[in-house]
Amino acid sequence: MSELETLTPVETLPSDPELEDGDHDRFSHYARKADIVESTVTGRPIVALCGKVWVPNRDPDRLAEVVASGPTSAAKDRTRLMGMLRTLRSVVRLRRSELDRTARRLRGAANLDDLRRLAKKRLPGGVFDYIDGGAEDELTLDRNVRSFREAEFRPRVLRDMGAVDTSSMLLGRPLAFPFVTAPTGFPRIADPEGELAVVRAAARAGVPFTLSTMGTRSIEECAEVAPEGARLWFQVYTWRDRSLVQEMVERSAAAGYEALVLTVDTAVLGRRERDVRRGFTLPPEIGPGTFLDGMLHPGWTWRFLRSEPIRFSNVVGSSVGDGSDAVSLAEYMTTQFDPGLSWRDVEWLQSIWDGPIVLKGIQTVADARLAADAGVAAIALSNHGGRQLDGAPAPFDLLPEVVDAVGHRLEVICDGGVRRGSDVVKACALGAAAVMAGRAHLYALGAAGERGVDHMLEFMQAGAARTMALCGAATVADLDPTLVRLPSR
Ligand SMILES: Cc1cc2nc3c(=O)[nH]c(=O)nc-3n(C[C@H](O)[C@H](O)[C@H](O)COP(=O)(O)O)c2cc1C
To answer: CB within 6 Å of ligand 1 — which residues?
Structure first.
């Protein structure tokens, strides 16, 4: 029988009040000895494990004998092993296991690239490519993101960053940080809730939400879920049938929308070659290819088939078709949208809308000046996220000259390529009143639905706050061009 098996637990610790007089000292002595037994003779962390003093058969003399006999080599190995285990235990922190699958997924998503990767995994290839892709060689899509990355900070220090405030003003109203969700067509292919999820998340984050004319939730549905104080903008495409546009503008006013965004970079639809290759339609058509894609993404297919049919909800019941039959977007837009859109239409829109108008898709100083002359409240420098004219300039690159030319006459929003909170800071430092981002909320929706959008908006704001602190700017008003250096070209 080994020494260990003869050990008997003593229920007492030296300070135990039930010890008899005299016992205290004795056990206190052997408590210390028991440590020695643990480390050199038995190799078992007896005291550490049980919180008790162990004495062989309650016989203190026997224990002293054991101690005196010194360690065996097996005991030494065990001791070394136990030492290593103790060290390991002191550095290893086991994470609490997360039972909620969405929370688990989001915990590993530290940035937008992670959300994009998750969306890619969860969405069928055609759906992901519709969101992710750009026009032709995707040069502009790539340039939009790169332009932010290439800009470098010139951070200031020792400026007391005890309290950093990301809040700002846009169109005369406050927002929690200078960020607006851009209008995107067909969000429900990323998640059945679609725009409703984005409206709620944007309201929680304290930033404006923009509904696309090609939305899959109607003007009224979005207004209904928007909590008190939420900021809703409506994006206008000009149908050949202007009465349809007028009707949507009136519905927006009636539903309490704050601003109209007129998209002006879509005289014709850009050629998005990923969609061409896949023969992608909206809503996605279930053909042999998409069937296989759907089978490989059963979660998405299940949600898609269970939810109500996806349609262009703002034009349901009108003669232009509501997308309930699968259509190629290019075909639909070519037949329905008016390539004759001109500055006269801006005037017309101003005549039927009382609130602020944002012209989205301005890409030159010359047009920025015309927009200021037309008296719009703001412009969004934008190339439609690289989905229209491939080879168009990156909005971020245009900022300095446009802000210089018209920044005192209207607000300038920088739309496209925003992937991080630090991009928001860079744009504002160069004079943008805010940024707009489209793919950000679509990746987030595809990755984890509404909670994904919450997550994305949280890390965008946190990233902006952290970057401001590291740059020495406590408020958005403190951001100025000296904080950013652009690469020389
Ligand atoms: C899938 C998708 C759909 C879009 N649909 C619209 C739209 O209906 N109307 C519009 O003005 N812009 C639309 N855009 C462009 C966005 O409003 C925005 O300009 C663009 O996403 C900004 O680039 P980012 O994705 O890099 O943030 C869409 C963009 C994407 C990715």
So the answer is: 130-131, 144, 182-185, 212, 214, 235, 263, 360, 382, 384-385, 387, 415-418, 437-440, 442
